[in-house]
Design a protein that fits this description.
Blueprint: E1 2-6, E2 15-19, E3 29-39, H1 41-47, H2 53-56, E4 67-75, E5 85-89, E6 102-106, E7 110-112, H3 119-124, H4 127-139, E8 147-150, H5 156-167, E9 171-176, H6 181-186, E10 191-194, E11 207-212, H7 218-222, E12 226-234, H8 241-250, E13 253-256, H9 263-274, E14 282-287, H10 291-299, E15 306-310
Parallel strand pairs: 8-9, 8-11, 9-10, 11-12, 12-13, 14-15
Antiparallel strand pairs: 1-2, 3-4, 3-6, 3-15, 4-5, 5-7
Helix pairs in contact: 4-5
Length: 312
């Protein structure tokens, strides 16, 4: 089978195409013939020697990527049978080995793909959608009527977070660029704020829960817009000790979290997709032979929704 191995940390020239024998699934795993792969910022960070590179550097070959959709070609788990269409985030934050024609994956990390959802849309709704679900449901426990603020609301994680929060009955304020105003409101956001027109702190107030997928100083700037007892959750490294201490002073809480592979949560995502309460926005699709171009697009930092790679 064809794979893309990371030869060394660096630029896209370090993504090397190779041939490798098909993986053999272990007990409770399935072998998936991959149809689509979702590309995430963590893929780029890992390729550059950051992200999870230090965890994977002793793997040979190192095959990065975690998000896949495809068809079960062999099974050693009672959860799925040969021919099932499945999707999921595999072995995150371990060695996902997603940049390959076939992937051996734990059945417990997967869900059945809804029949009317394409492989591209399904692959998109993995790491990003799981991150949004776990932040909003598992960590924040949002409820109907909560006021939720979502930074980078047009991005991969953000566009799912808007939809999930709305599906759970929250009042959602999305922050994005002017070019994405209609897109964010079309996702269901109740309010929109253009970060380029002025500091968002001046236009957003009384928030129960804020979701920071941006990092930098965004978390610190978000704390004053929270209600007393409010919660800020970050996923991009912006919640440091300084932010946590400032949060305590203001009577709010700030935490960071990392998404984990979960078939149970994937089934919740599948249900939302099936019931049309959430959809994937796929802005670009690249063939497997153009993985470098997919990485370059993510590196622009201006991607609406998700970037997908399909098998040639």
């Amino acid at each position: 089978m064809k794979i893309i191995a990371l030869q060394a940390p660096g630029g896209v020239d370090q993504l090397i195409y190779q041939e490798l024998a098909l993986p053999v699934p272990n007990n409770e795993e399935v072998l998936i013939e991959v149809r689509a792969i979702s590309i995430n910022p963590v893929d780029i960070k890992t390729r550059m020697g950051k992200g999870f590179y230090s965890r994977l550097k002793d793997e040979h070959p190192m095959i990065i990527g975690w998000d896949i959709s495809g068809v079960v070609s062999e099974t050693r788990s009672p959860l799925f049978k040969k021919g099932d269409a499945v999707f999921g985030m595999v072995n995150f934050p371990g060695h996902g080995r997603a940049y390959a024609e076939y992937v051996a994956a734990p059945a417990a990390h997967l869900a059945l793909k809804p029949a009317d959802i394409s492989f591209e849309e399904a692959a998109a709704a993995t790491l990003a959608a799981l991150t949004a679900w776990q932040v909003l449901v598992d960590h924040a426990g949002i409820k109907a009527g909560n006021r939720v603020l979502i930074h980078a609301a047009a991005g991969g994680v953000g566009h799912y977070a808007v939809q999930i929060a709305k599906a759970l009955g929250a009042h959602v304020t999305g922050i994005a660029s002017a070019a994405n105003r209609d897109f964010v409101l079309g996702l269901g956001a109740d309010e929109y704020f253009d970060y380029a027109t002025g500091p968002f702190e001046s236009g957003v107030h009384d928030i129960d829960m804020a979701f920071d997928a941006v990092g930098g100083d965004t978390g610190l700037r978000t704390l004053p817009v929270l209600k007393k007892g409010g919660l800020l959750i970050g996923i991009a490294g912006g919640i440091d000790d300084n932010v946590k201490e400032k949060a305590k002073e203001l009577g709010v809480t700030a935490i960071s979290t990392l998404v984990q592979s979960s078939g149970a949560d994937m089934n919740k995502i599948a249900e939302l997709l099936k019931n049309k309460k959430m959809h994937s926005t796929v802005s670009s699709v690249f063939p497997f032979s153009a993985m470098a171009d997919a990485h370059k697009q993510i590196e622009t930092g201006r991607t609406r929704g998700k970037i997908i790679v399909t098998m040639d």
